[in-house]
Amino acid sequence: MTITNPSAKSQISIADLPDTGLPRDAYTSDDWFAHELDTFFAARWHYVGHVSQLSKAGDFIKFDFADYSVLVTRSRSGEISALHNVCRHRGSRLTDDAKGNCKRAFVCSYHGWSYGHGGELLGAPRMQADFDKSAFPLKRAAVDVWAGLVFVNFSESPATTVAQHLAVADLSKYRLDETKVAWDETKVLKCNWKVLWENGLECYHCAINHPEVSKVIRVERDGPLGTVLPDGDFDWTNDYPLNFESLTIDGKYGVKKFLGDPETPQPNASYLSWHSGSLEVVVLPDYVKITNYKPLDAHTTEARVIGLVNADAQEDVDYDLAHLREVSIATRSQDDALCELIQRGLNSPAYEPGPFNDTYETINRNFKRLYLEAIGR
Amino acid sequence: MTITNPSAKSQISIADLPDTGLPRDAYTSDDWFAHELDTFFAARWHYVGHVSQLSKAGDFIKFDFADYSVLVTRSRSGEISALHNVCRHRGSRLTDDAKGNCKRAFVCSYHGWSYGHGGELLGAPRMQADFDKSAFPLKRAAVDVWAGLVFVNFSESPATTVAQHLAVADLSKYRLDETKVAWDETKVLKCNWKVLWENGLECYHCAINHPEVSKVIRVERDGPLGTVLPDGDFDWTNDYPLNFESLTIDGKYGVKKFLGDPETPQPNASYLSWHSGSLEVVVLPDYVKITNYKPLDAHTTEARVIGLVNADAQEDVDYDLAHLREVSIATRSQDDALCELIQRGLNSPAYEPGPFNDTYETINRNFKRLYLEAIGR
Amino acid sequence: MTITNPSAKSQISIADLPDTGLPRDAYTSDDWFAHELDTFFAARWHYVGHVSQLSKAGDFIKFDFADYSVLVTRSRSGEISALHNVCRHRGSRLTDDAKGNCKRAFVCSYHGWSYGHGGELLGAPRMQADFDKSAFPLKRAAVDVWAGLVFVNFSESPATTVAQHLAVADLSKYRLDETKVAWDETKVLKCNWKVLWENGLECYHCAINHPEVSKVIRVERDGPLGTVLPDGDFDWTNDYPLNFESLTIDGKYGVKKFLGDPETPQPNASYLSWHSGSLEVVVLPDYVKITNYKPLDAHTTEARVIGLVNADAQEDVDYDLAHLREVSIATRSQDDALCELIQRGLNSPAYEPGPFNDTYETINRNFKRLYLEAIGR
User: Fold this and answer.
1) Which of A16, A143, A336, B107 is the most buried (most CB within 10 A)?
2) b/e map of A98-114 (b: 16 or more CB within 10 Å)?
3) ipTM score over 0.95, yes or no
C-alpha cells in the first residue's frame, strides 16, 4: 500500500503542530461531547458491517448510533439502502433485531404499517381513503460500500464518498469484498472514545504493555511515524514491520487461505489503515482486524472488534478461531484496562495536556490538529 | 353512561384539529418534562387510592409524585386530609410506609415531633418555652373524593373539584364507593408517560396486538371515535361494545356479585372513562380496572393497575383473582413491550410526527390539542 | 481541653443568629453542590489518614475527592508530599491502589514515565534529546500534619495551616501522633453530606434514636450547647459528660492502654471536636473515633469511620475490636437510616426550613451562619 493523496493541499510539517495533547474538557465535558456529536460524528461515515452480511435479498443489519437507529437493507434488485428504523405513523421502531432477513416487508408491530426493502410504504391498514401512501416512505440515510465494507452517514448529502474519503488507502489487492466475518464482538468501556482512539494511534506504549504484539511486530523506532501525513483526514499508513508471518500468538499464519490470492500471501501486509471517525483497519496477509469505537456518552464508549478472513476459509479446517484471536483478545484487554485508568487521570482538574513524543506520537499530534479543525475549535 | 358536558363551550370539529402527533421533544426532552411537571401535573388531580382504604380512623395512604410525598389520612371525626410528609422541624419524612394505620399521631423519628391526623403539631419535645406549636402544622395539599376514588392536588387552590372536572362522567349506578381493591400492582417502564397514555386512547393497535381483548370486544370500527368530544378536558366515553359478558379470558363474568345491584349486571357497561392527568378507568359490569401512569422522568414511567370489585364479593368464593386478571395482565404486558419499542423509535432525530387515522385516532388528536393548551405550547 | 481562640473577632450571640435551617436547594440542587465544591471544599483541609500509615520511606496513601486524586507520600529523607495522581505525559493515573509502598518510583503504566517520592520526573523513556525532565514534575497539593493526622488542601496557597485552623482544639495530652489505626471503614449513603453533618452537630435526636449512646453519655441538657462559640470556623468543644468509663456497649474501657499516658486515663475525655469541612473527631480516654463525610454528588455521600488506639495496644490482647466498635457500628447504622429518610423529606418542594431548638441546636445554628459565609450566600 502506498500513500497517494492527490487532494492533500499541503504537506504538514510536524514541527509546526501544537506540542501538547487535548484539553481536559475534550475527554470529560458533556457539552463538548454534544458538540462533537453534532459536528464530528453527524457528518462522518460510520462503519456498519461487511457486505457479505447483506448477500441475500431481504438481508438487513441494524446500526444504532447515539439516538439514531438505521436499517441497512438489500432489496430484490440488489440495491442497498439505509432506512431510519422509525415508523412514519406513530414513530415506533420497526425492529430491535441486530440483523436478520426480512422476506417481504418491515411490518410495524404497532398498527401494521409495512415498508418494502427500499423503504416504500406498502400498506397502512384502515387509513382514510384519501391517504397518500407514497408520501410516507421510511426516511433515508446515506449508504456506501467500499472494499466490501458498508458505511452509513447521517448527513443528507455527505461531502464525500467513502472512496474519496479513503483515497490514500488502496487495499484492493487484499480483496476485502471477498471475505467473511470470522468474529464480531462488542464491549463497553468507561472512558471517552478519544482515549481509546489515541491509544491506537501510537505504539510508544507497546513495549511495556503488549508483549504478544511486541514479539511479532517491531514496535521500537528510530525516526518519526508518518512523516508524510495526509492532510484531508486522519488516514494513516503504518510502517511497523512484522518480524514473523502474521499477528498471532506464535507469529505463524492464522489462516491457511490468504487474503487476495488464497495460495500466496501478499507481501508487506503489516499495514494499518486508520480513517474516518473512529474506525481502525489492520490488514495482515491472512486476516483483517477492524476496531470501531462508538461513543455512548463523554465517559463511556462501546468498542467493537470484527475479524475478516478469506470467504472460502473454513473454521476448524483453515483456521482455529481461538488461535487467530488470541493476540487481539490479549491486546484489547491490556488497552481497555489502561484506557479506563487514563480516563480517571484525565478527570482530575490537575490534568494539564502533556508533551508529545517526537518519534512515536506524531500521528497523535496530527489527529489533534485535524480533529480540532473538524469540530471548529 | 351518557355524555353531558354543559360547561363545554363549543363542539370541536375533528377536521379542524392538527393532523400529526406530538413533536419529539414532548417524549424525550428533560426541559419539556420539567415544564410539563410545572404546568400539567402540578395543577391536576392525582388518583391516590380507593376510599375503602381509608375506612377506619388513623388509616393513611402515602402518595409519592415527583419529589412530593403526601399522606392522605382519615381522622377520628372522619375528615380526610392530605398532609405533606415533611416534618416542620428538620424536614424528615414522617413515614416511608406505603399505607398503614396511625393510632394517635405521626411521630417524626428524628426528634420526636408528633402530628395529629389533621396535621396539627401535638408535641415538640424540649423546645423553648415560647415555642408556638400552632404555627407549625404539617403543610396541606388539596384532597377530594369522587365516586369512592380519592384524589390529591398539589395546587393550593385547585380550579375545580374532581366532580366538576369529571362532569361528563356519570358512574353513579356502578356505586364505585361500594367497592374494594381486589389487586393493586405497579411496574416501571422505559418510556415517556404519553407513549403509554396515547396507546390507551386508541384501539387501532388492538387487532394485531391484543387477541384476548379483540375476542370479547368489538375493536374494529366504521366511523370515528368520540365524534362529540368534551371540550373541558380529556374525558372520553368509549363505545367499543362487548361481544360477551365481560372483559375476561373466556368472556364470562369474572365476579358473581355485580357492581351497583349485585344481582343484576348493569347493561351496556363496556364503557371506558378517561380523565385527569394520566388516569384511565375501565368499567365492566362486574369489575373496574383503573390504570394510572406516574412519570418518573422523561424516559421512565411507573404504571399502576388497580382492580375494584363489589365490596361484598369474596375472593375464591365470588371470584377467582387469576381468572379476573388474566386479560389485564396479558394486555399490559403486550402494551408495555410495544411502548418501550415506540420510545426507542421516538428517540431518533429522524422521527417526524406522523398522520392520525381518521377513524381510530380521533381521541389522540383531541388529546394533543388539549394537552398543548394545558402546557401553553 | 479548653476553648482558646484568640483570633475570634467577636462573641456571637446565639439570639442574633437566623432562626431556621438551610433552604432546600442546599440539600438538593446540583448547581448549589457545584458551587459548594468550588467555594467550600476547594479551599479546605481534607483529612487523609494517620501519620502511622506513612511511617516508612515510600509509603503512600491515595486520596480521591470529587474528580481529584492525590498521592500522599513519604520520601527517603522523611518529607511528606501530596502529589496529583496524574502523569504529566498523557494524564494517566499512576496508581489505583488505595495505599502501598513505592520502593523507588511511581511508574506510569502507559509509557513508563517514572516519578520520585517527591514528584520529580526521574525517567521519560525514548523522549526527544532536548526534552527537559525537570519541567514536568507531578503537580502538588498542599499537605499538613497535625496531631498525627494528615491533611491535604487542593488550594495552591491555603490561607491557614491546620494548626491555625484548629487553634481552639488542644488535643496534645492525648498524643494522637502516638496512635495507630484500629479500623477504617467506608459506606455510601443516599443523602447530602450536610444532612449527616448536621445530624452529628446535635444530640437532640439521641434520646430516641441512640439507646447505646444515651446510656453511657448524659445526652439530656439544661442550657444551650456551645454558649461560647468560636468565630473563625466550625470547631466546637462538646460538653456532654460520660456517665461511665468510655463510649462502649457496657460503658467500660475498650482498650487497656490509654491515650497519652498508657497507664492512666486522661480525665474528662468525653470531648468532641468538630472542624474543617466534614470531619468529626471524638476523643475518649482509650480511643479516638474519626468520622469523615465525602460528598459524591448533591444526593450521595461517602461516610468513613476510623478508629485510633494507642500505638502499643495489641488487638486481642489489649482490646477486642468487636467490643470496641459495637456502639459506633450501632450508632452509625441508626444515623444512616435517619439521614436517608431526612433527605427524602428535604427533596419535597413542600419543605420549608424549620426552627432551631434553643437548647440543643445552637451548634447547628452557628454552622449555618459560618457555612453560608464560607460559600458566599
Assistant:
1) A143
2) ebeebeebbbbbbbbbb
3) no
